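Contributing new complexes? Match this layout with tryptophan.
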Amino acid sequence: MRIVSGMRPTGKLHLGHYFGVIRNWIKLQNEHETFFFIADWHALTTAYKKTQDLKNHIRDVMIDWLALGLEPEKGTLFIQSRVKEHAELHLIFSMITPKSWLEWNPTYKDMKYNLLRLSEIELQFRGGLRDVVRQFLNMIPYKVEDFERFEEHLLEDLSSTFISALFEGEIEPELLKKINVSKRDFYDTDTYGFLGYPVLQSADILIYKGQGVPVGEDQLPHIELSREIARRFNSLYGDIFPEPEALLTETPKILGTDGRKMSKSYNNAIYFADTEEEVETKVMKMFTDPQKLRKNDPGRPNVCPVFSYHRLFTPQDKVEEINGDCRSGALGCVDCKKIMIHSLEEFLKPIRERRHQIQKNIRKVEQIFIEGSISARNVALETMEQVRQAINLK
Ligand code: TRP
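Output block (do not edit by hand):
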């Protein structure tokens, strides 16, 4: 089976990337013909206003992929924008894709929502959100007793609702004028490129006639769209494309250090580029069972993020012991974390070392991806030849 998948370059990779995606890719590269690429054009669909870090992000992803065990000898590793035929196929697909297929795509909405959260965090950082909320509160016609607390509450829980409402056009234009905010103060994703995101993704997959696409559940609507586009193309011009299938894996979700989903924007991630000291500091600050206040209080491993890491990194028999000792109160959180750091380091250390080695010769890394892009392009060119002929462009 031919496997195709891509990753947007958003920066250095963390444990979440490994357990969510890369681990599965590594397995697949041993069993199938694989094409894995850095989706740099896709990064532009949302981050087009901030491209100054893009090059570094791409480089970081290249280094991490190799350090984690993706091998250019086993599969094709490349960069999307180096295979221009993706863009050509995207253009052709855009001719045959009804707009409604894109506007109805639930990921389009979700993605917008995620960006809202991102912009929310940015605004909080700049203090801007506080101003918005304050002005918003000032407009409430009754008096709020505990203003400070209410404000915090609003900031935490209602800001996303507020911003979503803003995006959905549910806030009166009059009100918006008064508080002086507009959609454009947030990420501006009302673009042609953003709407066409899944069309480009379909081109990414179909240009290699990909049959299997290992992705997270959030990508399912995109894969479905690529099937629809393949069907439509085939029925219009003749059978060229297979209908790709999403390959989902039940991956144990790794939590961030605060117990939420691990994500760069939550500032709760452990990176492969982190030093041993950085990892230690992060783990020592990790959330544990909030009811275990003192060292000898009995704890609840099933609600403790640290224990979820033990499950992933600590040998099984030791995990059972920790489970018992936490429940009985024999094991305090500090000692438990120290054991966990040790286990985690067993996993991270070799990766960190490979990262250092690889980083020393960045030219070679780039060369690997340039060569990968050339072999990918050879396959892409063949498909495009068939496509041009089928459409009578040639
Ligand atoms: N949209 C994918 C994501 O955000 C990245 C991606 C781009 C992709 N092109 C692809 C994934 C093609 C699979 C196949 O994760």
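Reviewers usually confirm one structural detail per submission. For this one: Residues 119 and 187 are 6 Å apart (CA to CA).
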